[in-house]
What does this fold into?
Amino acid sequence: MKVFVIGANGQIGKHIVSMLKDSKEHTVTAMVRKEAQAEELKQAGVEAVIANLEGSANALQEAMAGSEAVIFTAGSGASTGADKTMLIDLDGAIKSVEAAEQAGVKRFVMVSALQAHNRENWGGTPSHYYVAKHYADRALMNSGLTYTIVRPGGLLNEPGTGKVTAAENLEMKTIPREDVARTVIESLNESNTHNTAFDLLSGETKIADALKNI
It folds into this structure.
């Protein structure tokens, strides 16, 4: 499968790109914002394109043309304000969905946030972040794409274990970014995740088995 990764230079995105590069099932095109980032990826043997989520949906469509699947793992980052969150995590995500539909892409995997679907569980987290994730997820669910929405808990920069808990509703705990990336990739071909959204945490079940039993 030809996979287009939006947010390829992010912490989860880097794991995803590396895993796809080594995959025998998939090929990868990484979308980044800067020429230096694209050049670094190309030197590592990864196809890269330059595009910007604050640009037009048409430009995104052109960038992902020929892809069979899109993985969206972009985010404005914790150091930015609500304005950037709305531009990247909300509008950028929705434009990516629109672009995928226009480009004839069939498969779309979104990295969201734990409990983004349940307003009553947003707690003390800045509301603009969860608002962005909530409505970006809704836009994907209402599209014509075959979607999977992965909602990971607190993200850790620890080695992955390859074992997770995946369910519609989970309480806030943590998960290594590496395990999120592997779950996203394994979701691509797992039909049980088609048109499904789920929370994701560290657990005791192998990723492939967890996805088969959501």
Q: What stands out?
A: The longest strand covers residues 146-152. The mean pLDDT is 95. Residues 85 and 129 are 6 Å apart (CA to CA). The first helix runs from residue 11 to 21.
